[in-house]
Write a sequence for this structure.
């Protein structure tokens, strides 16, 4: 289907009930122009609206009538003109190429955080299609796609039809997603003890799609890269079971809970992925990074206007939400958690629910103070650092546990007394995997006695803050570490430090540190897959080679360039796992010719942010280029925060207001970090390069 039209005209009729006499009807409305509107009461004469008052900021329109509409039922008719937009929200166009190379367009929906306030195409040449009756559902979970697609199909073990729709000619690329989806449905049915309520579930790859995936009921939409390529698929089908939230304040209940349970399902389907270890790196630490800022926000945020919704689709709603659910699951225990979830889902099936409704159900199943515990985590922002003091008293160990709010800027000195209810497991070196005692820290400080702990046994605890140099020394101890998640964390933190030192005279020294740390594991892994390797080995190889390439390791750079040339010439196509590190390396150390070779196709709308972010994250020159592109003018490093703030004051972005504040705070924190530790870091890096002292 070509779908070349942008502007459409349409007439809709809706059966409505007038509950109180009025001469106005207020409706949601966005990006449409109403031509005529009228109301026809049952058994009465048509009344034409005489005025349309648009409230664009609130996405509403008020229809005014010359006489009062009486209580009762009737039909509201509206003739309007609207646009099938290219904004990847509402009802929009998505451009794709068919195998012949011809450009076609699909008509696609994305209704989360917008309601369907846009027109449908109205063409007398289109074929009318009828569908089965839609069950009761939230409007933002409605979805429809019109276009040309291939599909692969199977049935789950419990009889649900599962289809994966792909671009034409790419049906086989949907096989892995199909296999996983077919495993996922029975798993969630058994886990929640609630059957999937629809006869089918479709997964479809959309060429132009703003999110990673969207859990539309029965038609889950994905970016093509998320559905057709990603080998560790964690499906949005988990969200087909989540009760609908009653308002955006409870958004995290969908996003955080679904994020957590996706890991649960991946662990069930692919235990060899060690996915819960990856959770710590991918979600838990991501949440801590953002939540340590003064400009963070609670998990539950009051949303007074639709424009405020976009701001809370962040690491707090997703990653912190998932992390507190993970803590809650461990605190309650799997059996009581599942029983409580079953009560919750059955009670609120086809209904709206709030956070408190979930706590009530879990409290009922576990007999524990769930609401009090979780409110301390969802209604206030931030998190505590747990401090442990210990003293041996005969055969027992006395522990003093206390909590303080952790702040990225240093010790918290505010007037507010922040306390969280923290489930703590205490174990000893006799059996590190087994809890000797479970404690609920529900105040600023408590003292507990652990019986029968010898003086030479350690009690597991984590507390304190150390200098950057001490962190670098710890990192060096991981040189022979085989675990992917550990290397992922090392890579991330060294990336932050490398960015921090980009404008210093010793940036090359931190690159040398990175090379020294990553070379042994890089040599061990090599470039090619070995027999017996698994998914985590492939992830680790891509991570390590990419890090070495970015840090300027010459053998890695030369090999990446050779493989890129062979790939370009068609001699040896790069495996999917190596494309990211090879592309990253040759671009980082390439020139305009390299860039032109890479950019053979136009950048899709959803990828523009990645392009700007990739340039900004590449080097200090890239950051200046990205900022110049956005702000038209460059910046001085010491004035960066002020310039960012000034730029957005003159170019308002209401949906990103909090993000801008967080950005400015991070800039100031990084400046303070550099000022505090710069000389010590430089001294340590020079000391590493110095020859060993001569023996006397």
């Amino acid at each position: 289907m070509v779908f070349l039209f942008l502007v459409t005209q349409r007439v809709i009729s809706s059966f409505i009930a007038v509950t109180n006499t009025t001469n106005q009807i207020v409706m949601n409305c966005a990006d449409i122009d109403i031509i005529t509107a009228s109301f026809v009461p049952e058994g009465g004469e048509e009344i034409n609206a005489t005025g349309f008052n648009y409230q664009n900021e609130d996405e509403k329109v008020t229809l005014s009538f010359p006489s009062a509409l009486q209580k009762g039922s009737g039909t509201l008719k509206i003739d309007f003109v609207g646009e099938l937009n290219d904004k990847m929200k509402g009802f929009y166009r998505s451009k794709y190429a068919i195998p012949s190379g011809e450009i076609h367009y699909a008509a696609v929906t994305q209704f989360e955080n917008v309601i369907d306030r846009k027109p449908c195409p109205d063409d007398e040449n289109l074929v009318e299609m009828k569908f089965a009756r839609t069950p009761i559902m939230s409007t933002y979970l409605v979805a429809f796609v019109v276009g040309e697609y291939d599909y692969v199909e199977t049935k789950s073990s419990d009889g649900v039809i599962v289809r994966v729709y792909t671009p034409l000619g790419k049906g086989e690329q949907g096989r892995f997603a199909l296999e996983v989806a077919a495993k996922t449905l029975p798993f969630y049915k058994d886990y929640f003890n609630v059957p999937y309520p629809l006869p089918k579930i479709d997964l479809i790859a959309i060429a132009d799609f703003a999110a990673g995936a969207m859990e539309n009921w029965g038609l889950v939409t994905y970016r093509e890269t998320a559905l057709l390529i990603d080998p560790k698929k964690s499906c949005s089908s988990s969200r087909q079971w989540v009760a609908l939230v009653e308002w955006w304040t409870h958004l995290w209940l969908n996003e955080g809970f679904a994020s957590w349970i996706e890991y649960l399902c991946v662990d069930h389907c692919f235990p060899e992925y060690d996915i819960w270890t990856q959770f710590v790196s991918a979600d838990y630490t991501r949440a801590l990074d953002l939540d340590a800022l003064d400009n963070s926000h609670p998990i539950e945020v009051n949303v007074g206007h639709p424009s405020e919704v976009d701001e809370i689709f962040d690491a707090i709603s997703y990653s912190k939400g998932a992390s507190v659910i993970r803590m809650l699951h461990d605190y309650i225990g799997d059996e009581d958690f599942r029983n409580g979830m079953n009560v919750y889902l059955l009670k609120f099936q086809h209904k709206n629910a709030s956070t408190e409704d979930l706590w009530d159900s879990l409290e009922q199943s576990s007999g524990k103070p769930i609401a009090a515990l979780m409110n301390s985590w969802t209604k206030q922002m931030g998190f505590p650092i747990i401090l442990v003091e210990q003293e041996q008293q005969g055969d027992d160990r006395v522990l003093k546990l206390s909590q303080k709010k952790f702040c990225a800027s240093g010790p918290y000195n505010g007037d507010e007394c922040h306390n969280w209810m923290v489930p703590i497991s205490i174990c000893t070196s006799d059996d590190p995997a087994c809890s000797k005692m479970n404690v609920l820290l529900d105040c600023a400080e408590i003292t507990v006695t652990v019986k029968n702990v010898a003086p030479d046994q350690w009690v597991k605890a984590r507390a304190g803050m150390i200098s950057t140099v001490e962190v670098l020394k710890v990192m060096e101890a991981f040189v022979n570490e085989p675990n992917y998640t550990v290397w992922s964390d090392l890579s991330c933190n060294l990336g932050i430090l490398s960015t921090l030192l980009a404008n210093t005279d010793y940036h090359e020294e931190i690159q040398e540190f990175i090379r020294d740390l990553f070379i042994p594991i890089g040599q061990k892994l090599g470039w090619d897959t070995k027999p017996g390797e698994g998914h985590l080995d492939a992830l680790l190889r891509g991570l390590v080679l990419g890090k070495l390439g970015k840090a300027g390791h010459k053998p890695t750079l030369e090999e990446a360039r050779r493989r890129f040339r062979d790939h370009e010439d068609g001699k040896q196509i790069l495996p999917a796992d190596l494309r990211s590190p090879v592309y990253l390396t040759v671009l980082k150390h390439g020139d305009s010719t390299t860039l032109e070779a890479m950019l053979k196709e136009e950048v899709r709308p959803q990828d523009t942010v990645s392009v700007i972010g990739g340039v900004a994250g590449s080097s200090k020159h890239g950051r200046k280029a990205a900022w110049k592109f956005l702000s038209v003018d460059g910046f001085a490093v010491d004035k960066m925060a002020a310039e960012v703030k000034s730029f957005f004051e003159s170019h308002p972005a209401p949906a990103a207001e909090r993000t801008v504040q967080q950005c400015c705070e991070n800039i100031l924190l990084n400046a303070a970090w550099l000022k505090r530790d710069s000389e010590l870091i430089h001294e340590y890096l020079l000391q590493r390069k110095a020859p060993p002292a001569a023996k006397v």
Q: What stands out?
A: The first helix runs from residue 175 to 192. The radius of gyration is 29 Å. Residues 96 and 102 are 8 Å apart (CA to CA).
